[in-house]
């Protein structure tokens, strides 16, 4: 027997970096021994995650060393493309691969640069500005991100932008006493700042915070809650409207001072729904209760504008206040009516509204750092579950107004936008932004990655692959698969020629895979930077082996995304480095380096560097010199020095990992220090509606563009699943997050597969026990779920009391079929929900492009299978 000598330890280091197994970007320490990564731990110095990581972060070693990773460039030799069609990959060298890619790109750029379409993934937030700089150099901003946005947050993002000046929100866990969640996994391992939220929820509960989770299933968050409120899928807006009714009309629990001062609640609304305006200044009017006359909203002499009521603004024109309009709309949603639609008892709805309103402690204050501020220790979070339905915008509006009505917004204890305001790094003043005043006194976000939703949003005939010009409120419009399949119908002035993919499993993560396959096949040439030969890479012509997050440099926290990872509840600002714990293995290269080489070969480096200076807001003397040539780490170095001074260069960050400084009260709770209002009555949406209606007339596909949801006030409207009454299709199917997988991308990770297998729910379909028994289905049976659209998935069932009787759910995105993902593609490893869906505008919210993610199904035991 041969005994292997242990290698003497030449190197044993702990390297600070950042996880990217999901978009929470927790700080990590990577333990490297003799060049091999042996352990990933949390970095206690990182304020974003406070030393905590999850199972996915810990298991990222297995993504780094997975023997199924793509390690060399590959070329397709089989011209036929389709699901399950073997591309007959042939290994090629980097030079040949980049030669093919640049030739195809050059040809496309000569025709029309917009024919180059970019596709990326949600976890890859820090590439947004780099990719945009490359897009600018190429001349194409035609980018899409598959299911990221249309599945999860478009409604929420629009509301977060309009109401909080931020891309998303978090509750002030350290001070919140009552946390209400609608279809959101915060505290259960998903949503934003996942590890921070788990800490926040646990410590909050230890402090006595009450947590109520509205969800069709006893989800990972609901398990931690004080109360689980099972709801029929797709009816959250009805519940929120009924709660608004209870708060405003029944219990009179609302924050009048907040509404008058920080919102447009007192603005007078004409019978046609528009603001009554001052004849001279055109400013919206409010009713001055002292003088009994209308005055412009910003007239300092108006101490007490009317909040409720209807007033004659002249010549008998009776106008209600915006808040009265909301109160009247809410009256249409009694708890009794809500019970029928949501299945939640009316008495429960009344109790929840009262508990929530009372916990808000309207009128109370708290003193922090010598500043006395309104104290509203309640918050409402909602995310994918509540709003991944058609009418997402209206649902998001209804739920968001709950926090707004009790004044629990951007103030201690309440719901906080994630960093609307930053004073910047004290040493240089860089990384600063704040919201500004837009039309009619309403705020416009000061830091927003993409076009800021506001009354000033541009609307014009679409030329983009996503039709985003028609979706002014959608942060990530997603018309792409429709236009890719039929560019002529959508009158795009170009035909997609090159698909430039930087990672996304779009075939499995947006809508019915067959339709996605059609869309992808339609693009003549696809280059894909890939970690794995997943179901989407199957459609590539050239595959380039990307470095995973453990093998590359990135700056965590982007100025253009308001610091993104730095949720406002985190008490310190931090900017940190993602750096290689391992050098890229085999022939893998980080794509930013490769993109720089492609740009060089295309002769567009100068424009790329100039665009980089703009997008990263680099300041002199650290701006890139467009006439020079840079490698990616040098660009990281220049950016860090520009933001934090020459002493904080890449070398400094490699050693220290991160730079942090305290957050000020005026930043976290900015609302009390700036006089900007937000709408509780979305008057300018009516204007968007008119503008889109006008434009529609010119569009041959105008009939597909619905405008009815551009409403000034919220409503509940049924999504497609509620209109599907085919006999036998009696259950709502949906999917949810588990803490041990990210979308589809982690199913081949051996450790995550192992740990996921331990939980009997994670790879099974979860169904209400009684519902199952009534169908003759027993625990562990192999069943078929068939949707109204004809799609089908199979798997085992798990019977539970923790599921709404009308629903069935599956976790994340399993059911892989790529033979290059051998662990993931075994039978019984979950299912791909998209197999049940249909690519149809009827299932898409036209205002924000959230896609409907529940569908009516029938479930039956597959005979002959044990
Ligand atoms: N059934 C189902 N559908 C879903 C979801 C779900 O959970 N279940 N989630 C929805 C949501 S909210 C979202 S945001 C979207 C996400 O949708 P996608 O962005 O398509 O997410 P993934 O399925 O993880 O696919 C990402 C792909 O990128 C690869 N990847 C990861 N990191 C890197 C990298 O550093 N470089 C490169 N080149 N590739 C990388 C992964 O291997 C994986 O193949 O999906 C949506 N659709
Ligand atoms: N572990 C893990 N963490 C992740 C991700 C991941 O894949 N894995 N993905 C990241 C991404 S991109 C996103 S977008 C977020 C998503 O974060 P979340 O929004 O928290 O995601 P989900 O768990 O899919 O959905 C939340 C809940 O909605 C419920 N739900 C479904 N339908 C309805 C409904 O009609 N009404 C109500 N009230 N609830 C409903 C589900 O049962 C689920 O418990 O998580 C992020 N974090
Ligand atoms: S929550 Fe987990 S997967 Fe996401 S960044 Fe943190 S450690 Fe990584
Ligand atoms: Mo997402």
Characterise this structure.
With 866 residues, the protein is an alpha/beta fold. Helices cover 27% and strands 18% of the residues. It has 24 helices and 36 strands. The strands form eleven sheets. Strands 5-4-27-26-25-6-7 form a seven-stranded mixed beta sheet, with helices on one face. A six-stranded mixed barrel has the order 31-35-32-34-33-36. It is globular. The model has no long low-confidence stretch (mean pLDDT 95). It binds ligand MGD (2 copies), iron/sulfur cluster and molybdenum atom (MO). The site of molybdenum atom has 4 residues, from loops.
Shape, principal axes of CA atoms: globular
Which stretches are low in confidence, meaning pLDDT under 50 for 5 or more residues running?
none
The major beta sheet can be summarized as: 7 strands, mixed
Total beta strand runs: 36
- Summarize model confidence as the mean pLDDT: 95
Ions, cofactors, ligands: which are bound? ligand MGD, iron/sulfur cluster, molybdenum atom
Distance between the termini: 45 Å
Structural class: alpha/beta
Q: Give Rg in angstroms.
A: 27 Å
Strand order in the sheet with the most strands: 5-4-27-26-25-6-7
Proportion of beta-strand residues: 15-25%
Q: What fraction, in percent, of the residue positions are helical? A: 25-40%
Number of helices: 24
